[in-house]
Amino acid sequence: MQKKDIKSMTLAELEQELVLLQEPHFRAKQIFEWMHAKRARGFSEMTNISKALRERLAEQYEYTDLPAVEELTSAIDGTKKFLFRLHDGNVVESVWMRYQHGNSVCISSQAGCRMGCMFCASTLGGLVRNLTASEMLDQVYQIGRLTGERVSNVVVMGVGEPLDNYDALLRFLFLVSDEKGLNISQRNITVSTCGLVDQMKRLAGEHLQITLALSLHAPDQEKRLRLMPVAKRYDIHEVVEACRDYFDCTGRRITFEYALIDGVNDSPEDARTLAKLVGSLNCHVNLIPVNPVKERGWKRPAHEKTAVFKELLEKSGIAVTVRREMGKDINGACGQLRNLRQHSAAQTE
Predict the structure, then answer these.
(1) Predicted confidence (pLDDT) at residue 349 exceeds the cutoff of 50
(2) Residue 121 near residue 229 (C-beta atoms within 8 A)
């Protein structure tokens, strides 16, 4: 018998399970609190539940508890990077970052990624599988436990394309923001996408209060095609219009992620073209000097070029920042540590 994933269940679903087990209604709330508020690592820690029920639960339900197999701490800024092992032996990576406004955790939504973006280490091995909602949740829970600090912001921007794992993502968003659990405000949650327009429209229809971040990375369709295979499916103007629809449905300002690559998309003309593309939206542009990936060969532009690009956008009335680089000395960028570990493992086989 295949066990059910209990930590991915909503409270209403858990209540139905307890009915089937012929247990009192209040047991569901106790178990839900142990999983999501107290963040118990297993049924054995649920001390106000009888041993007999705990044993029945262990027999019938899978309890996600991701062991950390690697933890690195940046000597530069204190950023922490974690590798967690899944039950099938795959590993996923997560990042903990301290900011003045609180502690942020960046989690993965898939083991690997099939989007193929040319500047990203996450896609190098392709997609292995989607993560469950509980596997996404437990990255947040384990980091809170390991650091001993409260997580106030969650970013789904690690390995994987979140909207390619839509149903599990949506379940994760509801659970991580549940007032009976970790109770992270939806306004403190950001979900990144490379631009899956159909799913972006679905997400807009959920009327959540999360921030949508679009990985844009190019000012026009021609350059986006060079960098992002998803552009073959969705034209850049179609993607931007989906962002406009998201704002209209939710009132939440759009973030555009733009990786600056030396000699590819970082010229003054690129900046002016980008300003025309997104300037009419209520948006914020986050400029990201590209993280060097050995297999790709891209380089980041000089600081002076980045400053000129930023200034041209600001003169067009666009809110823009240059992302502060975090965890540079610990392979902080998406997919780098996971890719390094997999490459090392392959060499020793």
Answers:
(1) no
(2) no
Q: Which of 216, 246, 243, 210 is nearest to 230 (CA)?
A: 216
User: Six-digit token pair at 239?
Assistant: 């993607």
Residue 93 annotated as catalytic:
yes
Nearest CA among 131, 96, 95 for reference residue 111: 131
Inter-residue contact 214 to 65 (CB < 8 Å):
no
Bridge partner residues of 288 (DSSP): 259
CA dihedral 233, 132, 82, 112 (to 10 degrees): -30
70 catalytic? Reply is: no
Catalytic residue selected from 17, 93, 135, 257: 93
Name 319's Cβ contacts closer than 8 Å, sequence gap at least 6. Answer: 283, 284, 285
What are φ and ψ of residue 260, in 5° steps? Answer: -85, 120
Task: Please count the CA atoms within 13 angstroms of the CA of 190 that sit on its side-chain side.
Answer: 17
Question: How far is CA 61 from each of CA 49, 248, 283, rounded to the nearest angstrom?
Answer: 15, 41, 43
Other beta carbons less than 10 A from residue 86's beta carbon: 18
Model confidence at 296, pLDDT cuts 50, 70, 90, reads low
User: Virtual CA dihedral for 336, 338, 339, 341, nearest 10 degrees?
Assistant: 120
How far from 98 is each of 73, 140, 153, 181, 323, CA to CA, in Å?
Answer: 12, 14, 10, 22, 14
pLDDT digits (tens, 9 = 90+) for 14-47: 999 999 999 998 999 999 999 999 999 999 999 9
